[in-house]
Every structure is written in structure tokens, then in C-alpha cells.
Amino acid sequence: MTDPMKLRPLREKLSRSPAGAHAPAFRTFEKIAQNAGKAARILLYMGAAIVSVVGLYGIALISAESLLIRRDVPADADIIVVLGGDGPPRAARAAALWHEGRARRVLVTGRGDCNFIRRILIEMRVPSAAIVTECRSASTWENAAFSQPILAGMQIRRAILVTSWFHSGRAVKRFRSVMPEIQWMSVPAEREESYWRLAFDPDGIQIFKEYPKIMAYDIRSRISEMALLNLLRPISIGAGQ
Questions:
Q1: What is the three-class DSSP state of 131?
Q2: What are the residues whose beta carbons fall under 8 Å from the beta carbon of 114, sequence distance 6 or more?
């Protein structure tokens, strides 16, 4: 048992210490506690942000079937137009339509893989003489713009548009806007993977990006329409005079 007499010097020393002698230690402890609280809040916000993004990503994938896809019943047409991008499934869909006799000509449009898709079509027994390529366009917007003079020169009246399933809605809307005189049918390459697998596949990111692309295309189309109206307005006024 500790002798109370031996503890007396320690008590006397503490009683003579200034009241603020231990303040630096307490301030250090308080600062550590504050920093720990800030770190915890940052981690909480980061966790909430991650959960929100993951949730939004999941909703985007599940909603793609109803919001992004445009499917039409295949019917006979003058030509099958295949968009560059995810080449093999799009080429396979176009080749199947050709062998069904839906159209006797094929246009492949898209810089970078137009010749690649053409080779796949030929390997799938589509005659090379039936295939036309447009290899300058680098976007869906340009696919339609650069295909227009080719299709006009061929006097096309009915066309089947082939692209990826999640890209079909935006693509056919763009082609119909540029070439309203042509009856467009959207017959996309269909989804082959489950949504769970898509979530960890590069196509999942492409699906997620499709939503802002649709909004950007709508805005761009509206601006183009307004610019065209402004350009034609002086002509209309002059004609009226």
C-alpha cells in the first residue's frame, strides 16, 4: 500500500502549479478532436456522394429500356444504314436484315471503323457491291449530315437505321430531323448482357452518358432551327415587298 507521506510532495507541487500550466496540452487535444470531426464530416459527405452517384447510375441503366430505345417493326426498305461505333453487333444486325431481304443496299457511316464494319459485312456474305461507305463523320450529328447527300443521290425513300440499342432513340431522331423526306425505321442491335453485367462493362458508361447527350442534341437542334429561321426571315420579308 502506498505511503500517504510519499505522495505529499507531489500534491504540493501540483497545488503550486499555475492554473494554465496544462492549457497547451488541452489545446492540442482540442485541435486534434476538431480535425477528427472535420475528417469524419468529409468522409460522410464523400460517402453520400458516392452512394448518390451509384444510385443514379443504376437508375440510368434500368431506365434505358424505356427512355433510350426506339424499336420499329422491320419492313422492306431501300437501304440499311449502319452507324459506326460498336461494330460487330451492329454489323451482325445489318447482315441479318440484308439476308432477310429487307433491303439490297447498305450504307456504313462513321470515321475510324467504317471499313472494319464493311469487312464484317462481307465476311457475313453481304456482297461488297451492295455496300457503300461514308468515312468522314465522327459523331451521330455528322453521321446524319454526311449521309444526307449520299442518300439523296440514291433517291432513298425508306431506310432502316441500325445502331446500338441504347443509342437508337437519339440516332433515329437525328436522322429524321435531317432527312424528313425519308421514312426511317429503327432496328437496333439488341442488348445481350444483363444490367448487372452492364454495370461493370464499358457499355454501362456509354449508356449513362447517353442521357446528357440527348439533352445536348436537343439544345443544339433547337439552336440550329432558330438560326435557320433567322436566316430565312429577311428573305421572307423581301419576298413580301
A1: strand
A2: 84, 108, 133, 134, 135
- 136 in Cβ contact with 142 (< 8 Å): yes
- Taken in order 117, 119, 125, 130, the sign of the CA dihedral is positive
| Cell numbers representing residue 51 in the block | 452512394
Helix (H, G, I), strand (E, B) or coil at 80: strand
Return the sign of the alpha-carbon dihedral for residues 102, 104, 110, 115: positive
Q: Give the C-alpha separation, 134 to 109, whole Å.
A: 5
Amino acid (1-letter code) at residue 145: A
* Strands of the 158-162 sheet, one edge to the other: 131-134, 106-109, 79-83, 158-162, 183-186
Instruction: Please give the grid coordinates belonging to residue 3.
Output: 505511503
Cβ-count burial of 234 within 10 angstroms (0-12 exposed, 13-18 middle, 19+ buried)? exposed
C-alpha cell at 231: 436566316
Greatest mean pLDDT among 17-21, 39-43, 47-51, 118-122 lies in 118-122
The grid coordinates of residue 61 equal: 441503366
pTM, entire model: 0.71
In which band, very low, low, confident or very high, does the pLDDT at 204 lie, cut at 50, 70 and 90? confident
Q: What is the DSSP letter of 85?
A: S
- The cell numbers describing 217, all together, are 442534341
